[in-house]
Amino acid sequence: MIPKMQTVTLQDAETQLARLVEQAARGEAFIISKAGRPMVKVIPFDTTIDHVQRLGFMAGQISVPEDFGVVARLPHYLFEIVTAIIELTP
């Protein structure tokens, strides 16, 4: 089970900033909230965030259909057809 992280209001964080910074530096991350909504997660500087989004994070989990680009090229083809019709029209 994941332990619940301490949540501090923005007002309390402003008055207790030095203590909270020391707490985070010791590895005790916490959340600062405003009006009951979490706003930021404070973690030690050298800690890596465990859910960092990165390129390729879904590699192998999704597939792209072979005809994926057909719809993207459709306006170009339509333009060519309309242009050819216009040129053929006397």
Task: Explain this structure.
With 90 residues, the chain is an alpha+beta fold. It has one domain (6-45, 65-88): YefM-like domain (YefM-like fold, 3-Layer(aba) Sandwich). Helix content is 38%, strand content 17%. The protein is built from three helices and three strands. The chain has helices at 10-15, 17-25, 70-88, and strands at 6-9, 30-34, 37-42. A three-stranded mixed sheet has the order 1-2-3. A hairpin with a 2-residue loop joins strand 2 and strand 3. The mean pLDDT is 82.
In a few lines, what is going on in this structure?
The chain has three helices and three strands, in the order βααββα.
Q: Could you please say which CATH topology applies here?
A: YefM-like fold
Shape: elongated
- Helix content class: 25-40%
Q: What is the domain tally? A: 1
In whole angstroms, how far apart are the ends? 78 Å
**What is the CATH class name?**
Alpha Beta
| Elements, N to C (H/E) | EHHEEH
Number of helices: 3
pLDDT below 50 for ≥5 consecutive residues: which ranges? none
Indicate the CATH architecture: 3-Layer(aba) Sandwich
Strand content is: 15-25%
- Quaternary state of this entry equals single chain
Estimate the mean pLDDT confidence: 82
CATH superfamily: YefM-like domain
Number of strands: 3
Radius of gyration: 27 Å
Order of strands, widest sheet: 1-2-3
Largest beta-sheet characterization: 3 strands, mixed
Q: What class, by secondary structure content?
A: alpha+beta
